From TrEMBL:
Signal peptide: none
Main location: membrane
Lineage: Eukaryota, Metazoa, Ecdysozoa, Arthropoda, Crustacea
Compartments where found: Endomembrane system; Golgi apparatus membrane
Transmembrane segments: 96-113, 125-144, 156-175, 187-205, 217-236, 248-271, 277-295
Topology with respect to the bilayer: Multi-pass membrane protein
Family: Belongs to the PGAP3 family.
Record-given protein name: Post-GPI attachment to proteins factor 3
Keywords on record: Golgi apparatus, GPI-anchor biosynthesis, Membrane, Signal, Transmembrane, Transmembrane helix
Listed GO MF terms: hydrolase activity, acting on ester bonds
Organism: Daphnia sinensis
One protein family per Pfam: Per1
A GO cellular component annotation in the UniProt record: endoplasmic reticulum membrane
InterPro entries given in the database record: Per1-like (IPR007217)
Source superkingdom: Eukaryota
């Protein structure tokens, strides 16, 4: 169903910019404002800094009367070039999604500091948690940049950043499942190399071969489903013996629930708040829950490690 909605959204993505009213307005604006040297003198510094061209400005200027025409004709708000119409703030293309991406980034920074205070560096998965934080911060940084200004490079980096979080979560689950098992280090190395090589290959094809939106959506759904299913089974197995595991179960359930915002799609409220922005807002507090679980899990594994050392 998610894939169907994604394909449907892609098909209907350009209704606004294909309309005759928008086309006529755009052609007039380009002819009047984007010929010769006049286009440079009319650009504000912040717009130039974010690489908003004269053509982009004409598209933005012509979008709003077209939106009003669609609304007055009772057709409803339509998308332009695959995106809903947003009011720009200081040149920022999607202000709400930008702000909420920053909130997610800050959440990881704050919680990793708490993790460092409460967990000893010698504890199992101490480094793993830091790798997880770095990957998530990198992903949310590119999400912020992408929502500030949507161009091909920032879009690809946003997609790859999100995919890196999903892949590392799968790797984290596999390594946690095999912790303290025979040959766990060899399995960890194997899974790490396999997932790492696949990510490098996918990044290369995305940058230099084709940005395949459908395939990117499918692999994110597939690995995300493996991740949620794997952690869910692990939680069901251990939640009675380890009460702190309920935090992991709650996190997994909330991640699955908040993903519904990505399935929903509606014109932005007040021209700034759409389903995607609400999804980013809903995921911001989840970092607190996940790191609290990681702190308790590291304490548990530290106890296990001491018991094994005593037996040895």
């Amino acid at each position: 169903m998610v894939v169907f909605l994604f394909v449907l959204k892609s098909v209907l993505a350009s209704t606004g910019d294909r309309s005759q009213m928008f086309y006529s307005c755009l052609q007039d604006c380009l002819a009047q404002n984007c010929s010769g040297s006049s286009q440079d003198s009319q650009s504000f510094l912040v717009l130039r800094a974010l690489h908003w061209t004269c053509s982009d400005e004409c598209k933005y200027f012509c979008m709003w009367p077209t939106v009003n025409w669609f609304v007055e004709a009772e057709i409803g708000v339509q998308q332009f070039y695959g995106k809903w119409p947003f009011i720009r703030v200081w040149g920022i293309q999607e202000p709400a999604a930008t702000l909420f991406s920053i909130l997610n980034l800050v959440g990881h920074v704050v919680m990793i500091r708490r993790f460092q205070k409460e967990v000893k560096p010698s504890a199992p998965f101490y480094l793993m948690t830091h790798y997880f934080c770095i990957i998530c911060c990198h992903a949310w940084l590119w999400s912020t940049i992408f929502h500030i200004r949507d161009v091909r490079f920032t879009e690809i980096m946003d997609y790859l950043g999100a995919f890196s979080m999903v892949l590392f979560s799968v790797y984290h689950f596999l390594v946690r499942m095999l912790a303290f098992q025979p040959r766990s280090s060899q399995y960890s190395l194997f899974f790490g190399m396999a997932i790492g090589f696949y990510f490098v290959y996918h990044s290369y094809t995305t940058f230099f071969v084709k940005m395949d939106y459908g395939y990117n959506m499918l692999i994110n759904i597939a690995f995300g489903a493996v991740n949620i299913l794997g952690w869910s089974i692990w939680c069901l197995k251990f939640y009675k013996r380890r009460p702190y595991v309920k935090q992991c179960a709650a996190f997994v359930a909330l991640v699955a629930f908040t993903t519904l915002f990505e399935v929903l799609d509606f014109p932005p409220l007040f021209w700034v708040l759409d389903a995607h922005a609400l999804w980013h807002l809903s995921t911001a507090p989840l970092a607190i829950l996940w790191y609290k679980f990681l702190i308790d899990d590291c304490h548990y594994m530290e106890g296990q490690k001491l018991n094994l050392e005593k037996l040895a």
